Amino acid sequence: MSYKHLRISMWIGVLALLALVLGACTAVAPAPAQAPAAAPTEAAAEAPAGDAPTVALIYGVRGDGFYITMEAGARAKAAELGVNFFADGPAQFQPALQVPILDAVIAQQPDAICIAATDRQALIEPMRRAYDAGIHMLSVDTFIGDTAGDYTVPELDWMLSYIGSDNVQGGEIGCSAIIEAMGGEGKFYIQDVRPGISTTDQRVEGCKNAIEATGGAVELIGLDYNDDNAAKAAEQTSAVLASNPDLGGIFGTNLFSARGAAQAVANAGLTGVVKVANFDAPEDAIVALQNNVVDIVIAQHPYEMGEKCIEFALAAVNGDFDSIPKRWPTGYTIITRENVDTEEAQQSIYKSE
């Protein structure tokens, strides 16, 4: 090849290389990949959208027939009134598990929250955070503070209402029935969850009132705390029965307390001899009643609590605060083997789904 032709070939190669470089410089760089969105919390995933007001229910423990029935009442009333609704709650009745759920719900900014606080003190500040975020707050089943659910006091007047049973009355009713079944005298034992729960604290108070009313004919020999664990309640009750074979009656302040106590009584072969009161009326408590394992079932009205939660929350959203009572007490239905098949008793049984 001649020198002239060699020089032309070199220039052609250089020009081709420059074209490739310029083309690469003007190409649009691909957009960086976006980080995946954080997984929503359970409450966030359930929160509905829309222009209608939104009310959240935070119950005390997941899977409990009492709260399942409460949620059913709230859902039905929400559908009737055109209110968005969602619900969540912890796997155990513990404030350490409930507070993160409350915080997740607050982040969703519902118009109102109805909550069954798992501790009367530990939930005050977390619930106040919700109020400070502009959310209307209502108590269902349990209350907060030391004023027995009196939300007219200045330190708690930011709470709209406490919707729930008169638990002192419930404790008196349940223990009076057991004392009557005992013949009005004998030894008595209480199975409780733990101190600091407003409802069960008051049930114990009412039960002690019933015992004191006997003028010493009935002796309270002990009170144990089972941490909402039926197996622990059974173990504790077994120990009491071993040291007190003449025990006459037991009051279980909630479902798991009564379930464990009744199991211990059955294991000791004392079914029907030691009278057991079951506070709350899930389906298995009714089976225990019919099988003579427990002698009385005290049914609250959680469906009504759920309904009132939605009614009062909607009134608050509409600015109708005068129609919202600071206290809405719900009643009881006492279920025995004699009336268990009546319409009133059957309607009072908590549903499992």
Explained architecture:
With 353 residues, this protein is of the alpha/beta class. The protein has 12 helices and 12 strands. The protein folds into 2 domains: 42-165 and 301-330, Response regulator (Rossmann fold), CATH 3.40.50; 168-300 and 338-344, Response regulator (Rossmann fold, 3-Layer(aba) Sandwich). Strand 6, helix 7 (198-212) and strand 7 (218-225) form a beta-alpha-beta unit. Helix 4 packs parallel to helix 5 (124-132), helix 6 crosses helix 7 (198-212) and helix 8 (230-243) packs across helix 9. The longest helix has 24 residues, at 3-26.
List the helices and strands and how they pair.
Layout: H1 3-26, H2 42-46, E1 54-58, H3 65-81, E2 84-88, H4 95-107, E3 112-115, H5 124-132, E4 136-140, E5 161-165, H6 167-181, E6 186-192, H7 198-212, E7 218-225, H8 230-243, E8 247-252, H9 255-267, E9 275-279, H10 283-290, E10 296-299, H11 302-317, E11 327-330, E12 333-335, H12 343-348
Helix pairs in contact: 3-11, 4-5, 6-7, 8-9
Task: Offer a few descriptive terms.
2 domains, alpha/beta, elongated, 12 strands, 353 residues, Rossmann fold, six-stranded parallel sheet
Order of helices and strands: HHEHEHEHEEHEHEHEHEHEHEEH
Overall CATH class of the largest domain? Alpha Beta
Distance between the termini: 93 Å
What portion of residues is helical?
40-55%
- What is the name of the CATH architecture of the largest domain? 3-Layer(aba) Sandwich
Catalogue the unreliable spans: 1-47
Our count of helices gives 12
Main-sheet strand order equals 2-1-3-4-5-11
Oligomeric grouping of the chains: single chain
Global Rg: 31 Å
* Major sheet description: 6 strands, parallel
Q: Helix/strand-derived class? A: alpha/beta
Tell me the CATH topology of the largest domain: Rossmann fold
